[in-house]
Amino acid sequence: xxxxxxxxxxxxxxxxxxxxxxxxxxxxxxxxxxxxxxxxxxxxxxxxxxxxxxxxxxxxxxxxxxxxxxxxxxxxxxxxxxxxxxxxxxxxxxxxxxxxxxxxxxxxxxxxxxxxxxxxxxxxxxxxxxxxxxxxxxxxxxxxxxxxxxxxxxxxxxxxxxxxxxxxxxxxxxxxxxxxxxxxxxxxxxxxxxxxxxxxxxxxxxxxxxxxxxxxxxxxxxxxxxxxxxxxxxxxxxxxxxxxxxxxxxxxxxxxxxxxxxxxxxxxxxxxxxxxxxxxxxxxxxxxxxxxxxxxxxxxxxxxxxxxxxxxxxxxxxxxxxxxxxxxxxxxxxxxx
Length: 337
Ligand code: CP
Description:
Order of helices and strands: HEHEHEHEHEHEHEHEHHEHHH
Largest sheet: 5 strands, parallel
Shape: globular
Bound molecules: phosphoric acid mono(formamide)ester
Number of helices: 13
Helix content: 40-55%
CATH class of the largest domain: Alpha Beta
CATH superfamily of the largest domain: Aspartate/ornithine carbamoyltransferase
Oligomer: single chain
């Protein structure tokens, strides 16, 4: 069986991404009736976190448990990776013991190196370049909150703020799926050409569109969804005064800006948020804010992704084969103890 990782949504076709989302919807429907099928019975997921996490860690761990498997939280400093053991050796060892490896790494190169050596699926839980599991969840959330009379290819998504790893992934998946994506930010905080070329190539194939602007009011005028993210992240503390001055108040998603969007427009944020910075409480807690539906969907999306990647790879021995091996082992045990 071909080994597939989940490092970048660009590695998946439009149809594969839609299949993944549809699979997630079916698993979510089962979950809502209290009957999540144990599709990953006894499977193990190794989870390496080089950075803190609430949603990603909890959603992957709970997803594995509810699917009948198990997740192991592996923290730098508590495993040998990068200190006493090479990436190659760690990838080989985890591949022998676990059915998949998840990693949140500081550098994107770390996860691509891990994937190069691993013999089981590797899942990207956020790097300095992208956050693919987040944005599959985001598209699922948009589908569930689709404005009346629209279909996926009609949707207009506007991202306001810094060109973060979430921005890159959201721009890539929306343009791949044929949606209309706008990013509003000061020029210094707009995406690099390499990212724009990927999104433009997606648009050429999908019929989607890409707009980059410095004008947030124009950017939200036709938006079905407004999305924002943190203006600074761990390691950017020295840049806080400069970044605050660049974004505030023009790019803050406050009621004044939200009211410039159509009356059906909904607000999204991947969280964690700095309330009162990139978005105000009035918008975060607005009746058209869907941030907690979005958060909950991380759990359902991780289930869909884990089943998509792992279910076809798991051995499912017959009752007869299981009884045979149990009998052999128990007979030997009776001889020796
Ligand atoms: N959105 C997201 O990835 O959240 P965490 O950093 O809490 O995992």
